[in-house]
Amino acid sequence: MVCLGNICRSPLAEGLMRSKLNFTKFTVDSAGTSGSHRGEQPDKRSIAVASKNGLDISTQASRKLVVEDFDRFDYIFVMDDSNYEDTTSLAPNDDAIAKVHKVLDWAFPNEGLNVPDPYYGGKSGFDQVYKMLDHATDVIAQKLNE
Ligand code: 4NP
Description:
- By secondary structure, the protein is mainly alpha-helical.
- The model has no long low-confidence stretch (mean pLDDT 97).
- Helix content is 43%, strand content 7%.
- It has one domain: Response regulator (Rossmann fold).
- It has helices at 9-20, 44-52, 69-72, 81-90, 94-98, 123-145, and strands at residues 2-3, 31-32, 76-78, 100-102.
């Protein structure tokens, strides 16, 4: 699960995804394309909306996406078009590019939807992001668990 800072959206996506997949079969992680919040805990507002919904994401720490992630993971889900650009720019070859998907595309094919960056907005933006990611990860988990 990849966003820009790995403190708002992708930590929520990681927590949700991990809660929905068989942990003996899947490795779930998240990263940011920028690395500017490296080592930081998720944003307080992401921790709060997760906690309100029964998920603890407080132990996650932000890290930067690295080229080795294209070997370690079969699927890389990004939040928006800008993340898609940055992530595919780092991909070493076409097989790696093919692993990159926008996280809402499986639930809403051909609609080109983005998960909006909630960082500069208020708390309601985080509720909205949580709802979008809850639905997106339901659809992804169902497909992957199959
Ligand atoms: P995220 O949100 O990509 O969902 O983690 C952001 C966090 C920090 C910044 C931008 C987006 N920032 O500019 O510091």
